[in-house]
Structure formats: structure tokens, C-alpha cells
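Sequence and structure are no longer studied apart. To make this concrete, we show below a single chain and its fold as C-alpha cells.
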Amino acid sequence: YTNQTGPHYPADNNYLTKKNIQYEEKDINADMEARKELIQRRIMSVPTIIIDDTEVIVGFDKEKIDSILGL
């Protein structure tokens, strides 16, 4: 989940692309359903990365991304 006006945009997307990690970007400003999904998870911050619907990373944390994905 992203917000194109956020302080980590596009660094988070660039990092995932550089690592050849496939992802689906959901911009919470353009996609109200995406915004609702985050609210339902009680998350009020972007970027938020959800891996396999089980691991949630709030904020841009390269080390945590790498650790979860075994990179």
C-alpha cells in the first residue's frame, strides 16, 4: 500500500523492483477499497507491505523485507 505523496515513495517501489520482487501497488489516495483494507487491518500508515497475507511491514524497512523473503 502506498501514497504517491508519501516520504518513501518511490523508494519502496524502486527497491522492490531492483530486487526483482513482484508486487501489486495499491495507492490509498486513488483506490478507496485499498484505503478501506488498511483501515480494516487497523493500519494508518504507508508504505505498508503485506507478504503472503501473513507478514505485515509498516514503513519502509529493507532489512525486514529481505529477512522475510530470505534475500
